């Protein structure tokens, strides 16, 4: 689903907000989550923060988001491992896999991101436009 901020209404009728895309944000550092929130503002996106990588797959399963944004450098597991686990979980449950957008620390990591099968990635520091474009591309697939 490509996010839109409002739907069109007939003349004289009130406009209603379009359904927001649900995005789970997996990052254990507050500054990363804050930057994602600044880039993916309401009403286009409903953001669900998650700062514990070890329970990320359970959160994604429970929330049923339209996409997941994962910081590559989350402690303990790492973003690539979480992305792979989400893909494996979807395959085991015979579900459609949730598109993943990785936040990379350096452009050289894009090779690994591409091989891991994620939908999109951006390199930190990212612009709001870059992250929004990556999320929109990931959710359009």
Explain the overall architecture.
The N terminus is likely disordered. The chain starts with 20 loop residues before the first strand and ends with a helix. The chain is globular and about 35 Å long. With 141 residues, it is an alpha/beta fold. A 5-stranded parallel β-sheet has the order 2-1-3-4-5, with helices on both faces. It is built from 5 helices and 5 strands.
CATH-defined topology: Rossmann fold
Average pLDDT for all residues: 82
CA radius of gyration is 15 Å
CATH class: Alpha Beta
Strand element count: 5
Structural class by helix and strand composition: alpha/beta
Assess the beta-strand content as a share of residues. Answer: 15-25%
What is the annotated CATH architecture?
3-Layer(aba) Sandwich
Which bin fits the share of residues in helices?
A: 25-40%
Spatial strand order of the main sheet:
2-1-3-4-5
SSE layout and pairing:
Layout: E1 21-26, H1 30-39, E2 45-50, H2 56-63, E3 67-71, H3 79-92, E4 100-104, H4 110-116, E5 120-123, H5 128-140
Parallel strand pairs: 1-2, 1-3, 3-4, 4-5
Helix pairs in contact: 1-5
In short:
With 141 residues, this protein is α/β, with parallel strands linked by helices.
């Amino acid at each position: 689903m490509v996010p839109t901020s409002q739907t069109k209404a007939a003349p004289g009728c009130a406009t209603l907000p379009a359904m927001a895309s649900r995005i789970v944000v997996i990052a254990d550092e507050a500054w990363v989550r804050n930057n994602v929130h600044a880039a993916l503002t309401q009403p286009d996106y409903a953001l669900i923060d998650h700062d514990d990588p070890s329970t990320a797959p359970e959160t994604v399963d429970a929330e049923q988001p339209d996409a997941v944004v994962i910081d590559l450098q989350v402690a303990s597991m790492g973003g690539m491992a979480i992305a792979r686990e989400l893909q494996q979980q979807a395959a085991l449950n015979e579900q459609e896999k949730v598109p993943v957008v990785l936040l990379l620390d350096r452009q050289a990591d894009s090779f690994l991101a591409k091989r891991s099968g994620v939908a999109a990635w951006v390199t930190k520091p990212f612009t709001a436009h870059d992250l929004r474009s990556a999320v929109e591309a990931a959710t359009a697939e």
